[in-house]
Amino acid sequence: MNPANPPACGGNRARQMRGKPAITAAIEAEQPSAKSEAGADSQHSDVRRILLVTDAWHPQVNGVVRTLERLSEKLPTMGVEAVFLTPAGFRSLAMPTYPEIRLALTTPGEVRRQIKAAAADHVHIVTEGPLGLMARWACLKEGHHFTTSYHTRFPEYLRARLPLPESWTYAWMRRFHNAAAATLVATPSLATELAGKGFTKLRPWTRGVDTELFNPDRSGDLGLPRPIFLYVGRVAVEKNIGAFLGLDLPGSKVVVGDGPAMAQLKARHTDAHFLGERTGLELARIYASSDVFVFPSRTDTFGIVLLEALASGLPIAAYPVTGPIDIVGDGTAGVLSEDLGAAAQAALTVDRQHAREKALGYSWKACAEMFVGHVRDVHGKHEQAIPAGSAP
Length: 392
What we know:
The strands form 3 sheets. A 6-stranded parallel sheet has the order 2-1-5-6-7-8, with helices on both faces. The chain has helices spanning about 10-15, 20-30, 35-40, 65-75, 110-120, 130-140, 155-160, 165-180, 190-195, 240-245, 260-270, 280-290, 305-310, 325-330, 340-345, 350-360, 365-380; strands at about 50-55, 80-85, 90-95, 100-105, 120-125, 145-150, 180-185, 200-205, 230, 250-255, 275, 290-295, 315-320, 335. The chain is an alpha/beta fold.
């Protein structure tokens, strides 16, 4: 285990909820009042140390890792210590077709031992990889209640690479998460979808953005013909980047990021500009200096890059799917359409200030408060107390 390795780390409302699926109404009802449930002064104040078990870790650059980094920074301000069990603490091998992802080589017994050694008040399982599987087994074996989070659409990701029916993978994912006391999901639309597939005990956990780093004031000249249509994120088959690069758009198409599909996309779309992986101020400048953020993915569960773009004053063009529909579905900060090219063109007319204002409604502090609130609530209620030795 490598716990020392994390970064420094009303009535009107009821009427609005009518006519919506029950799970969507419940999730949306909770989100604005996250602080009341998730504040640092929660009555369940006995949770002071949380172990987060994750197969997603450095050197990966993705939304899961970014969320964990921000949690490690914000939780101490609420009197909570975050410790991590990651592949960095073990020998590992590269995931086939995706070498950036390292899979830990260890045993269930060793993971069980390290969970005990962490002496945490609560275990949260972030991912469904090798470490997540073994941590789940250990918690069930010991009779510990635990929570999980649903970050990645593995059924769709696997189907994009292998002829494996999504129904099989969803059955396995459902079994994995339903053993937890709660499963945290990022958006109401995802909660509705998962509930329809038999997932239970779903709770909201939104994301945040650094609105000081990602700011319209960082705008500059990228030296490219305008308008500039930008994509930022992993360059992988499940991101559907080809749908963006194949559009007939004026100006320039720019891709920031790296991944296993890079060589293929560069060879096929010679008119596009591939800038590779960029971070920090350099990335913030690229966002603010572009004209539209094009998000072609149909499989993301949220898309933190959407918030980074909006914070930079960059309107969104995307498909009307989970993530975009939850963040810019009201049409004030972007355009959603099954015709992605039309959405990209229309997004050029969106007021950039509206995009910025949308992002100001999200913060990493609120994200951390919501997470801690759910953990303390579950811990206090002792939901899903499972007898030792009953691991399925």
